[in-house]
Amino acid sequence: xxxxxxxxxxxxxxxxxxxxxxxxxxxxxxxxxxxxxxxxxxxxxxxxxxxxxxxxxxxxxxxxxxxxxxxxxxxxxxxxxxxxxxxxxxxxxxxxxxxxxxxxxxxxxxxxxxxxxxxxxxxxxxxxxxxxxxxxxxxxxxxxxxxxxxxxxxxxxxxxxxxxxxxxxxxxxxxxxxxxxxxxxxxxxxxxxxxxxxxxxxxxxxxxxxxxxxxxxxxxxxxxxxxxxxxxxxxxxxxxxxxxxxxxxxxxxxxxxxxxxxxxxxxxxxxxxxxxxxxxxxxxxxxxxxxxxxxxxxxxxxxxxxxxxxxxxxxxxxxxxxxxxxxxxxxxxx
Length: 334
Prior knowledge:
This protein is of the alpha/beta class and 334 residues long. Helix content is 48%, strand content 14%. The protein has helices spanning 2-6, 12-15, 22-38, 45-62, 67-70, 80-104, 113-138, 144-149, 153-162, 166-181, 192-195, 198-206, 224-227, 242-245, 253-256, 293-297; strands at residues 213-216, 235-237, 260-266, 275-280, 283-288, 300-305, 314-321, 326-332.
């Protein structure tokens, strides 16, 4: 909601991302595991499993031929942005496991200072190349100075990890991660953005004295009614609501028997019958005429939408114009 209000329609957990060290540590990890194998030592199974999992994720993302095999792991069911979250968790596990192994067996690390310096320099060149490529292809997304500045911390962190300066590396890693994400995840703002905004205030005012439900046409505003203590038919349902959606004609059981975000779309014909569709794996879209009896049957009395609606059964109560979007509130006539 905050990002839609400020001009960025996005999910915060997907807009932000992990600072991935794992891709930069794969070569050192493989060399260390090879050293263990050559010397007859027991290979760290946990580190090997994490490396395999990370490789599967990478293959699914960048190798189209791997997609059929990815279905075995149900990765085809996971949106790419969510897959990156999984990769971020694997990244943390891999770094922690590598440090644990190195502290448990000091001889596990055998790289010379010159080799580590050369590898860190290679990482710097790689990071600079990627960042400058992003600058060249996206223009204003990242400036030249920022592209250079953001390329510096990762090589330093990799260098410190390989030199066994784990505490300093961890502090720098946390500091850089915090710096690039704290404005994306503004925990310091609390819930004020949800309750103290023009849309919420209008919804609460209009709903006074009524226990009728709200519906919304966007995942950005789907939970806004419930978050403000109002009844809502749209929103996130954490477990299947089979008895609720089975009343919709021709609704497919396999579509609604799931956790899902539920939003409403409104047909050009005010009396069009309701239709339920699975938009993506975790989003149910119900399209109906705003004057169809289905909404009254489900005790819907208010509509929050970003589009103009027409029909004899509705009354336009207010419009809210924000920098990034406009919202319209309609009341269904009794």
